[in-house]
Amino acid sequence: MATLSLFAVFLGLTLLGAPLAVALGLAGSVAILEAQLGILSVPTTVYAGIAKYPLLAIPVFILAGLIFERVGVARQLVSFASSIVGARNGGLAIVAVLVCMVMGGISGSGPADAAAVATVMIPSLHKAGYPKAFSASVIAAGAATAILIPPSVAFIIYSVLVPQASVPALFAGGLIPGLLAGLSLLAPIVYLSRRHGFGMADSGPRPGFWVSLKGAIWGLLAPVIILGGLRLGLFTPTEAAVVAVFYGLFVGVFILRTLSGRMLIDMLADAAEMSGVVLLIIALASVFAWAGSTLGAFDAVAGAALQATDNEVVVLLMLNLLLLGLGMVLDAVSIFLILLPLLVPFMEAFHWDPVWFGVMVTMNLAVGQFTPPMAVNLMVTTRIAGVRMEAATGWTLWFVGAMIVALMVVTFVPELTLWLPRALGYL
């Protein structure tokens, strides 16, 4: 009865439109009362859910991303990428994807990445002859790589929920799949641009390589400093977030001279609000996860599924379909908190590597970030572009298909994920 109450209350509250954090917390609390596990375990579990050192990195990385976005780093990166790609069909759209990938290596957040690049790129893309709906789709898809290319907020949360996978190993494991996901978008960009003649309009002179490199070097150095410091053992992932913040402040105040006191106050407020939402969901989801694991509900569900089929390929395909479907209606953090307690028993039953499994799950959720109806990245870019999401859906499906191909490669070739962590000594 307690297990039934856990899932029934959660599903009922979700269908009624209750906030996800409320649905998770209440469902767990009802199950705890039903099973007489002690109601005082609720506040204890809420505290324990967020009293974890790695989670300190989340608000700090969010703040670092906001700083780099608003001091003008994205504009410098656009100029540098344009100097490399040059004027051609699809050239400026390719630039948008490349900038999204570099910015993702700073912010670790898809929606934040999408907002920063869309604000800079959409006017230029429109001037060069790209439809706004197409531009919004390109940037939304490119920004999805932010949760794969380190540093990634999603990987930090995964490491807390699955302690067998360390944050440095996940960061290293996500690099090649993240690059593969971004590069997979280039094929449909070039095809569609040539087919429809996008990018033929004059978009201005090609920026000089060395001049643009000089302007972009401070943004390009940020991922190098973060990842290099982690590899050399100079700081932990949490300390790396603090280093990124102070580096961003240094660039904004002394190099670009675009950061004012008013901007800093606004960024602190925005980072606090975004972090508060994420951590509240994590805290209340901990109640749901503790109740389900204590009752054995998650192991029972996994056991029932494994009795239906023990074919590893079939199970992998089913998990991917489930994650892709949920990614279309829920955000990545929520899916981690709801599903990981259910998915970990599958990982253990098939002896899957937890780092590879985490990257595969996260890549599914990256696709969901720009797949309607939820499509948080696409919501951001279409709003900035001033078009309806429905207008961008047709273009978006091309990029969904391309990234799913990359996802299948990562799913069935685990070495793409595991080679770098092993080479760096994390596994």
From TrEMBL:
Entry function: Part of the tripartite ATP-independent periplasmic (TRAP) transport system.
Keywords for this protein: Cell inner membrane, Cell membrane, Membrane, Transmembrane, Transmembrane helix, Transport
Protein family membership: Belongs to the TRAP transporter large permease family.
Lineage of the organism: Bacteria, Pseudomonadati, Pseudomonadota, Alphaproteobacteria, Rhodospirillales
Full protein name: TRAP transporter large permease protein
TRAP C4-dicarboxylate transport system permease DctM subunit domain sequence ranges: 7-416
Assembly information from the UniProt record: The complex comprises the extracytoplasmic solute receptor protein and the two transmembrane proteins.
Protein's membrane topology: Multi-pass membrane protein
Keyword Transcription: no
InterPro entries xref list: DctM, TRAP_DctM
GO CC terms: plasma membrane
PANTHER family per the UniProt record, alphabetical: SIALIC ACID TRAP TRANSPORTER PERMEASE PROTEIN SIAT-RELATED
Subcellular location: Cell inner membrane
Pfam families assigned: DctM
Gene Ontology MF terms in the entry: transmembrane transporter activity
Record organism: Rhodospirillum rubrum (strain ATCC 11170 / ATH 1.1.1 / DSM 467 / LMG 4362 / NCIMB 8255 / S1)
Domain of life the protein comes from: Bacteria
Oxidoreductase is among the record's keywords: no
Bilayer-spanning residue ranges: 47-68, 80-104, 138-161, 167-192, 213-234, 240-259, 271-293, 313-343, 355-375, 395-420
